[in-house]
Design a protein that fits this description.
alpha+beta, Quinone Oxidoreductase, Chain A, domain 1, Rossmann fold, five-stranded antiparallel β-sheet, disordered N terminus, oxidoreductase
């Protein structure tokens, strides 16, 4: 790997994982072009792996275009900034954001991100002379990446980057689903479907809200398997359903018809639909969804020990073990895996 050229120069070769689909990623030498106006080139220190990447590799993601550099849960340092960047500079510690810190995501980034391109409709990656696409506006499976300046959150430089990389998605999504989206209140009964990293973060959010009187390590009072019962799970949990339910698996579950709040957290397949009798909504049942939990960043909460994060990491792997990460995801042997770049 040639490291003799300046990091900000066009065509600087770095290692990146170019994903071709079908569960496989290859380690390639790529070129990351210098940043244009309102863009950043950033150095990835560590990246976590979300189930969304596995979903994209499966071919079911309608916005999954290949070849691309996947990854969206990273911890990074700004390498260089393009013209017009005023709030960030080289050396700043940041976490990438699929949803920028502004209200104009649908207008500024959503359309181009859905096509795996930068906001200006271009790609900043090439490999052997061919264009490589971006992913979720972040592409963290690389030594260096290119992002829009609105697509990162500046965080405390004291934060250990290998510990906070997944706070930009999985942790924020689950924790925020309970605290920000549902706004669970004390004495309520909550049900969480799916106990991966996102589901465990939901449990932690419920614990912070003093929902569970007999909380375990991150807040659960008991765990059950829906397939073990012959009747609907809402009838097993309580008489008619729970007050709040959090769906973290990409399928549809139920809570109490009259007053329950159901929060869709997991990413469902593109063809899936939610169907119900409108009367459920008329008499008070509420459906909500959440996008990254409504947070900019949870790093300060982690630094001040208001939330747990270290306990979620079950595996630490090297960059050349990226395909092993997906094996762990599909075998359900990992809660959160962090890859050090």
């Amino acid at each position: 790997m040639d490291r003799s050229r300046g990091h900000g120069e066009p065509g600087y070769p770095v290692q990146g994982c170019s994903c071709l689909g079908g569960w496989k990623a290859s380690s390639e030498e790529i070129e990351v072009a210098s940043p244009k106006a309102h863009k950043l080139q950033i150095k990835i220190v560590a990246t976590a792996v979300c189930h969304t990447e596995a979903y994209t590799l499966s071919g079911a993601d309608p916005e999954g275009y290949f070849p691309a550099i996947l990854g969206h849960e990273g911890a990074e340092i700004v390498e260089s900034a393009g013209e017009g960047v005023t709030k960030l500079k080289a050396g700043d510690t940041v976490i990438p954001l699929y949803i920028p810190q502004c209200a104009n995501v649908n207008f500024k980034t959503r359309v181009t991100q859905g096509k795996c391109l930068m906001p200006d409709g271009t790609s900043r990656f090439t490999c052997k002379g061919k264009t490589i696409l971006h992913y979720m506006g972040t592409s963290t499976f690389s030594e260096y990446t290119a992002v829009a300046d609105i697509s990162v959150a500046k965080v405390d430089p004291l934060a250990p980057l290998d510990k906070v990389s997944f706070l930009g998605c999985g942790m924020s999504t689950g924790y925020g689903a309970a605290v920000n989206t549902a706004k669970v209140d004390p004495s309520s009964v909550c049900a969480i479907f799916g106990l991966g990293g996102v589901g465990l973060a939901v449990k932690m959010g419920c614990k912070v809200a003093d929902i569970f009187a007999r909380a375990e390590e991150v807040g659960a009072t008991e765990c059950i398997i829906p397939q073990d019962f012959s009747k609907p799970i809402q009838e097993v949990l309580t008489d008619g359903g729970v007050d709040y339910s959090f769906e973290c698996t990409g399928t549809v579950k139920a809570c109490h018809k009259s007053w329950g709040v159901s929060v869709a957290v997991g990413v469902a397949a593109s063809h899936e639909e939610i169907a119900t009798c409108p009367f459920q909504l008329v008499i008070g049942h509420t459906w909500k969804d959440t996008a990254f939990g409504g947070w900019k960043s949870l790093v300060s909460e982690y630094i001040f020990k208001n939330i747990k994060a270290d306990e979620f990491v079950t595996h630490n792997l090297s960059f050349d073990e990226i395909n092993k990460v997906f094996e762990l995801v599909h075998s359900r042997k990992s809660i959160q895996t962090v890859v050090k770049i």
